[in-house]
Amino acid sequence: MGSSDPRAGDRAGRSGRAGAVGGWCHGADERRPRSRSHWALPGKHASGPTGNREVGCGTVVLYDTDTARLQTLRYGRMPENHKTSLQDQLQAETASILALQPNLVRVRLADGAKDNWRLLADIERTLPPAPQPSPEIVDFYHGCEHLKRGCDAAWGGSTARGKAEFVRLKTLLKEADDGVDVIIRVLKYQHGCAKSRNKQKLLDVELTYFRNQKPRMHYADYLRRGLPIASGVMEAACKTLVTQRMKRSGMAWTMTGGQAILTLRSLIQSQRWSSAWPLLSADFRQTVTVRSPRPTPAERPAIQLGGCQPTTTLSTQASYAALPLAT
User: Fold this and answer.
1) Backbone angles phi, psi at 157, to 5 degrees
2) For a disulfide at 139, which of 60, 231, 257, 295, Cβ 3.0-4.6 Å?
């Protein structure tokens, strides 16, 4: 599980670019009720409103110098404290790739959640020193979501001014070297002009977000260097690995059953099934012996219906209307 495809590593090595992406998604597991005071706490919660706990997802992605994706390796783990198993798997995967291609550029890309950056920083500390700085990048579109909320608070979500300012600031954030500084100045000015306490609180939230994430939002520089700025690969992994299979109506999962599904889907979606199956089958495959063959339809005894013995044998040719019915 910790080894990578040497061919993909070789392609990335010749191109000189690789990225490690980490993130999370929600999945169903144990139902644990939460109090109202729990949901009133600020910040991101590890459990949804129904008490569902969080499944951890992570990806390691190899890119070439044109930011074309060469290979995506997906991992999913059932809920656990501090995502320990997920962190170990991502660390082993990255270390095995760097053992083959030590000069790859390493990129840590995630949304703004603190746990994501802690996990990725812990992984980075275990790896050999990088030949080039290993940047942390907050997903551009997560940043745009916060920008949209800030513009809605400042000018109104349905106003022409609010829409125009969002488009202008979004472009600056992506293309200008001081884009995030401009956004902070604009939101700070709007906060000072706000007369409503609620409006000030909404702008406070977005100002805090951009101030905290500012070191990770130099998108113009990242694009010049050919680095990825969006975590669409991570979002897609959350959807295909977990959501489409494990969050259907009425579903709940045990830890062992859910992890079995996640492991198999991770291998298949990472294009590793053929190499992983010999390892899985050595531990989990069991020989099944059939002691007696199942009878054919002609050999089965006639069905008793209300004490009457039908004279017609059920078969694919017999129509329902022609069968004798009990009275």
Assistant:
1) -70, -25
2) 231
CA distance 142 to 138: 7
Q: What is the pTM of this model?
A: 0.72
Q: Are residues 128 and 144 in the same domain?
A: no
Give CA–CA dist 185/169, Å, rounded: 11
The answer to whether the CB of 35 falls within 8 A of the CB of 195 is: no
Check residue 29 and give its pLDDT: 32
Tokens of 211: 């101030």
Alpha carbon 137 to its chain's center:
16
Segment holding 196, helix H or strand E: none
Residues 214 and 268 in one domain: no
- Clarify whether residues 121 and 4 are in a common domain: yes
pLDDT in tens, 239-255: 999 999 999 998 889 99
Sheet holding 108-110, edge to edge: 69-77, 54-63, 17-26, 108-110, 136-138
Structural domain includes residue 192: yes
Q: What tokens were used for 52?
A: 């569902």
